[in-house]
Amino acid sequence: MNKTMYSLSTAIFLFVLLLLSSPLNAGQKVTFAFEDKNNFPYYIGNGLQVHWKKPGVSVELLKMLESKLDVKVVMKRMPWNRCKHDLKNGKVDGIFNASFKAKRMKLGVYPTKNGITDPEKRITTIAYALYKIKGSSLTWDFEKKKFTGLRLGIAAPLGYSIVSDLTKWGAKVSEAATTHENFMMLTYGRVEGAAALQLAGDYYLMQKEFTDIVKVKDPLVSKAYYLMLSHQFVEKDPHLAKLVWNAVEEIRKESLDKISEKYFKDSSKDIVLSFKDGGGWPPYVIENTDGSYKGIMVDIFSQAGKALGYNVKFKPLPGTSIAKFMKTGDVHARPKAMDWVDNPEEYYWTDPVVESADHFITKKDSTITGIQDIKNKCVITHAAYGYPTLDHLFDKGEIKKFDC
After folding, report:
1. Which of 66, 176, 195, 237 could form a disulfide with 156 if both were Cys (CB 3.0 to 4.6 A apart)?
2. Mode of pairing for the β-strands spanning 285-287 and 293-294
3. CB within 8 A of 399, min separation 6: which ones?
4. Within a 13 Å sphere around the CA of 127, how many CA atoms are in the beta-carbon half?
């Protein structure tokens, strides 16, 4: 009897010891949600899918919790209001990137220290900084939200929230797709300043490409962004919640700069090639059902970019807008015939990539056999295209044209 009791007690002791020596969160699944809109470089792309090849800085940082804590991190994308709704109802364990707002404390829990939000546990600080040329008289008063020495304006990232802020503060804004392009505008003297995400702007300063550019001391705007955890998650496992926030701090300090670098390094090597929207331009550019592109021009420029170490991106635009975006630097190239451009001297041209010929298409029973037969008739033409053998007749009104 005593022997049996001793053996049972030993077994229980060993079992308890095993539990205490094993991580309580081993293999536990935690589900985080983030917005379904692009917020470069923190999360990339639009839609419900996570683009795992390059998901974004915040996504990569939080995914590293798997190796830090031996948990399984599941990511979901959804509209931001849905993120907050699901956090409140415990359908997800956390959401990011969340700035602090007191009213959000009803939805979930921020990392705190001594009763206030702990900025050391943030995922990142999203700050916009102002950059200028060395010796420039441009200044920024953060308290008064006022610029001095501003005449031409400020370059800013296309479509970002800082654009409306700059406009509100009285600045004329020139937008471009990348920080690199905005810094180029600053270098060329088209603007007095450039507003950029501090993470991006500082990266380019470190690369020593823009040695004449300096950062203005005070930020334009600055906010800390956190991983919020649900009340349900924190109440169920407060120890794991604390471990998660501590690990976020460690990963940010150890790896944020390294993770961020590849996003800016890669984007500086992008070339945007545009063409008229509306399904492509077969067989030169063909739009696939998934939104990707193929065709003769796509293959040629993709291979040329690869050989030179550049990423070629294809961007459909209205035909009348492409020239405008080429002037701002948001589009770098387009496949086009020199004859179709009113001011070809303003562009650089390659040798011919392909040659093609235009033909009249008529009904089988048509009596039209050549140009002489279409005078005083209407011809359907491509908008923004040029027709060297017909343009003078269009100008004289001898042939009517209908652009489509």
Report:
1. 195
2. antiparallel
3. 374, 375, 376, 377, 378, 379, 390, 393
4. 18
Measured distance between the N- and C-terminal CA atoms of the chain, rounded to whole angstroms: 97
Paired strand residues for 173: 154
Please report which confidence band the pLDDT of residue 10 belongs to, taking 50, 70 and 90 as the band edges: low
Find, among 322, 308, 233, 267, the residue nearest to 32 by Cα: 233
Token digits of residue 330:
């948001």
Q: Are 46 and 38 in contact (CB under 8 A)?
A: yes
Separation CA 333–CA 348 (nearest Å): 9
Contact of 228 with 107, CB cutoff 8 Å? yes
Task: Please answer whether residues 41 and 196 qualify as being in contact, where contact means their C-beta atoms are separated by less than 8 angstroms.
Answer: no
Backbone angles phi, psi at 39, to 5 degrees: -140, 75
Of 65-74, 138-147, 233-242, 254-263, the one with minimum mean pLDDT is 254-263
Written as one string, the DSSP assignment of 189-254 is TS-SEEEEEHHHHHHHHHTTS-TTEEE-SS-SEEEEEEEEEEHHHHHH-HHHHHHHHHHHHHHHHH
Q: CB–CB of 59/34 below 8 Å?
A: yes
DSSP secondary structure letters along 2-63: HHHHHHHHHHHHHHHHHHHHS-TTTT-EEEEEEESS-BTTTB-SSSSS--TTS--HHHHHHH
Residue closest to 247 by CA, chosen among 61, 388, 97:
61
71: helix, coil or strand? Answer: coil
The confidence band for 19, taking pLDDT boundaries of 50, 70 and 90, is very low
Q: How far is CA 173 from CA 126, 159, 322, 380, in A?
A: 20, 11, 20, 40
Q: How far is CA 272 from CA 320, 322, 332, 333, in A?
A: 17, 11, 5, 7
Mean per-residue pLDDT, 250-269 = 82
If 0-12 CB within 10 Å is exposed, 13-18 middle and 19+ buried, where does residue 118 land? middle
